[in-house]
Amino acid sequence: MTERQPAVYILASKPFGTLYVGVTSDLCSRVSLHKQKHYSGFTSKYGVHKLVYFEYLDSMEAAIKREKQMKEWQRAWKIRLIENFNPHWLDKFAELCGRFELTETGK
Question: What pTM did the predictor assign?
């Protein structure tokens, strides 16, 4: 499991499916909450919970700036980014977070 660090991430419903770009200071906890459908909005509605891309940044300010930039991108650019990082669109959650417990609080 990783320590708290600002990150931007992309979740997908399936390969080439619905995408969601987010930002957090605790990636494992945040993705855990998405997987539990803790958030009643977009990710729950469309089943978007596979962690297919992430990058760590030096500050929350930089992470928010990167998230805003990526949200403005064309879909094809996001897909290219994912495929360069994760060509098989594997869910990187278990690999990144190890035995992270999926609990209501994510902790």
Answer: 0.88
